[in-house]
Amino acid sequence: MTSTLLIVQFVLAIIITITVLLQKSSSIGLGAYSGSNESLFGAKGPGNFLSKATMILGLLFVINTIYLGYIYNQNKLESAVDNVKTESLIPATPEKEKAPAAPIAPVAPVLPTEPAGK
């Protein structure tokens, strides 16, 4: 899902760049390469269509950016350690194979002795 949205982000960036460069400005922009762009967009010219297209593409770009940021933030909160199954890493030992614990022998109390010099 993330990779698809990232590809959409790149495509939107390229299309926005092209629509901005096709708009009329003091210089001719990319319109010089496509010939007369007046006939391509109708009698009124590309101004109205391209400005609306730029606005819609920009809005889609911002929404996609916010959603990608949200997804990456959610993935950042997850830890790789949380996904490790610890039960499969520790070998299980059956109860029959365990050696019985040795009984603890009672210890006789040690009585204090008198010093030898008295």
Automatic annotation (TrEMBL):
Keyword Metal-binding attributed: no
Tagged with keyword Glycoprotein: no
One GO biological process term: protein secretion
Membrane topology according to the record: Multi-pass membrane protein
Pfam families listed in its UniProt record: SecG
Top-level taxon in the UniProt lineage: Bacteria
Bias-annotated ranges (Low complexity): 100-118
InterPro entries: SecG
Subcellular location: Cell membrane
Residues that span the membrane, as ranges: 51-72
Record family assignment: Belongs to the SecG family.
Described function: Involved in protein export. Participates in an early event of protein translocation.
Stated name of the protein: Protein-export membrane protein SecG
Source species: Halarcobacter ebronensis
